[in-house]
Amino acid sequence: xxxxxxxxxxxxxxxxxxxxxxxxxxxxxxxxxxxxxxxxxxxxxxxxxxxxxxxxxxxxxxxxxxxxxxxxxxxxxxxxxxxxxxxxxxxxxxxxxxxxxxxxxxxxxxxxxxxxxxxxxxxxxxxxxxxxxxxxxxxxxxxxxxxxxxxxxxxxxxxxxxxxxxxxxxxxxxxxxxxxxxxxxxxxxxxxxxxxxxxxxxxxxxxxxxxxxxxxxxxxxxxxxxxxxxxxxxxxxxxxxxxxxxxxxxxxxx
Length: 254
Ligand SMILES: O=C(O)CC1=CCC(=O)O1
Hints:
The chain is an alpha/beta fold. It is 46% helix and 16% strand. Strands 1-3-2-4-5-6-7 form a 7-stranded mixed beta sheet, with helices on both faces. Strand 2 (14-18), helix 1 (29-38) and strand 3 form a beta-alpha-beta unit. The mean pLDDT is 98. Ligand LWBT4IAB binds at residues 20-22, 86-87, 115, 140, 143, 179, 205, 231. This is 3-oxoadipate enol-lactonase. It comes from Kribbella jejuensis.
């Protein structure tokens, strides 16, 4: 079972938050207080990351969605809202497409159905297996935030680099290889949960066009492009992102 933590309002609707590669559940710290006012919040560490087990690879995107289903079962939740960023967003899309009864409303941030060129992910997996996650920490975090924001937040930069560098190399590499072998393009029309796709306007890792395609291809999608935000838009612009997430999850389907 993946490591998880619960907080927020015990009897409110539940929202599950899924991380980007190289991050632990602390990546949602800037969003947590506001989410906890409205929801029961479940955060977890993706397999191979943080406090979760590092089973031997290879992993697939369906292993990640099965981990979520096991977590929902453990918490006795028939369905929940799901919010995922980057690899977490890919997990959310696959889960919503393959297990629609388990996902209420969906938010995907800074992600894509397929992250080309796929060879970059096998290259990164090879590098991390050879030299450890510390070898990629600086370059990964440089893409998480805009240059001006990073310059103004040296302590966050340091903490984020430490978070990436403390991710087990085997777990991180196996997750790179998930992305190298995943194309969710064909899953998008099967995503029926009302979906908000949020892009960082300055995100070079998963540019706004990726989120535009998701919003246009799922059955019921909307797009929000957040200005002055890179890949970890939820941490760089929590003011805009948390408000949009809460509004989407509280929207009435009727
Ligand atoms: O690490 C990156 O470069 C960006 C990224 C892609 C998938 C993910 O989770 O992070």
